[in-house]
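Contributing: when you submit paired examples, paste them exactly as shown. First protein:
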Amino acid sequence: MGLMASSLRRTLVGAFNRVASIKVSKRFDAIAAQIMLRVIGVYQVLLSPLLGQQCLFSPTCSNRSAALIREHGWSTGMPIARAQLRRCCGNFRVSLNADDKIELRCSDGTVFTEEELSPAFLQRYGLFVRSVRMDRS
């Protein structure tokens, strides 16, 4: 990822985290959720293609966030979406499990199986993790 794309991604994640911390009264929960769904839609159409496939997960964090906000509204959905985004942008460890499948363990202890990881992530880390495993055998 280029320097400009990396900087844009950090800016967007920071903005999302700040917005996600806003408390909204129950009266405005549905309106706030609809606004955020539109913002996520704009991100998916205009900005995500510029950044390229960066998300570790499948479905992507923006798709998961939209689904969470749609299902739970602003007050409940945004904190969960924020935690999901932290997992994608935070520290993680990649390893092979007992079935020789790749798994990702996030700094918060959440474990994602190979089926939950994006094709771009698997392409980037899969061969490396498997080659390290072969070298140790």
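Second protein:
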Amino acid sequence: MHGKQIQYNSPLGEEIPNPSLEFLKKVIFEHTADYWSSESTGDSALVIKKDKGELWFIFFFDEPHGFFIYYDMEFVPLKKGIPLKDDRYVEHVVGTEPMRIPTICYRTREEAWTIVLDFINDQRMSDRFNWVRLGEID
């Protein structure tokens, strides 16, 4: 994968070095919310290891909302032009702590795949979305 060190951390604690795009596509398009259930860590991650540190890309799927994606433990992708306001939330358990997530933070499987590819190829947030700090959403 372009000479980068990439690791996939599954919700069950498996650390998979240099996962293939085929493997990651299966995670995005075929796994159901049960894969990220309360019997696991509740999330999965892609980690790009570089000389200057690590970039973390955390994600999970909730039915029927889609994928929640958390870049560098701070930023979430929103569709461009959407106001930073949402009074509807989804509760998802990560580790043992419930996390309240505004519904506008969720992306479809197709959008998630695009974001994953941009992260792997460019090691940055996809410019196809507006990335905001999760705490900035009312």
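If you have annotations for the second protein, write them as plain sentences, like these:
Helices lie at 21-30, 109-122.
DSSP finds two helices and ten strands in the chain.
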